[in-house]
Description:
Layout lengths: L2 H14 L12 E5 L4 E5 L14 E5 H10 L8 H11 L16 H5 L4 E5 L2 H7 L4 H8 L7 E4 L6 H18 L5 E4 L3 E6 L2 H19 L10 E3 L5 E3 L2 H7 L7 H5 L4 H7 L3 E3 L6 E3 L6 E3 L3 H23 L9 H9 L1 H8 L3
Parallel strand pairs: 5-6, 10-11
Antiparallel strand pairs: 1-2, 1-4, 2-3, 4-7, 6-7, 8-9, 9-12, 11-12
Protein name: Class II aldolase/adducin family protein
InterPro entries: Aldolase_II/adducin_N, Aldolase_II/adducin_N_sf
Pfam families: Aldolase_II
Amino acid sequence: MYSEGLKDLVRISQAAGKSPDLVQGGGGNTSVKLDDALMAVKASGYKLKEITTTDGFVVVNYKNIKEYHENVDLSKNTDYEKESGEFVRANVVPVEGLKPLRPSVEAGFHSVLLKYVIHTHPVYSNIICCCESGQELAEKIFAHRKYGFVWIPYINPGFMLTLAIMKEVKKHISDKGFFPQVIFMENHGLVVTADTADECIGLHEDVLDTIRDYFNITEPFPEVAIEPLPDGTFRSRTGYLQEYFKGRNVSASFFDETILYPDQMVYLGGNISVNGTENKMNINTETGEIIYRTGEKEALTMEETLMGFIYVVENIRKNNLKIKTMGEREADFIRNWESEKYRKSLLK
């Protein structure tokens, strides 16, 4: 019945999930509004490139979800983070042939945007989103783009992020007379939205091309790969990372003190040893070798996440910008958030 819409979902998901410079592991999400009530949105924990017309997504009643967020009474003493998550899951529409999966934790903000939505964590836009002068840079780089953008200062994913996006979108419409199609989220990532699949894909590419041009990034993103070893572990085959860590004076605390965005915490937090051998990720600074003591799916997700993190850090420094990290209170929220624990559990 909704075959064209689902084909479009696969198409925008493949475009957004084709490379680890755009998303790492199960990060990012996509959606397509199928009619005036139903929306297909990526399932939590799935990789974008894993989505097919019969798997990797759920159908929700986005009309109900949108109305919930538009009419919520914040004066009540309610745990809206928990309640909103339960409300979204209660609005999953069973579809014959689809697995009973959990919708993305960001289905809320998808419900209030245009027909097609791509949300990614590109290393290029995160050079802007993870630096102190990010908003000013975005305004400078995108001042003359006709599609319009809004900047969202860091706010916890889920319920509060949806409200923040709704507020900024309404303000942009009031101030400039049209719906902003690009959203930069500080210490998080990029969202683009459009009325057609082709426009959404093209918009996503244009934003990233514009940033690459501004920073004069001409080298292709390093190839990210791991290889199995006879003892059941995995070894990094990403030359960029081996060269980066070889001979570098770095400690495991560096990764805990330099938290750029939630996915870094979800996939790397507490899992890194430097010159040790018993953690999930073990970095040898003498040789640059990285050994993973975990399954292949988690090892590759960690490798992609580490590569993205180092790339963003190095490009911020190279451009004489100042790194903007997440605060401790925000980091604690992610560490203790049930939705992120669920997503992390799917790697096992």
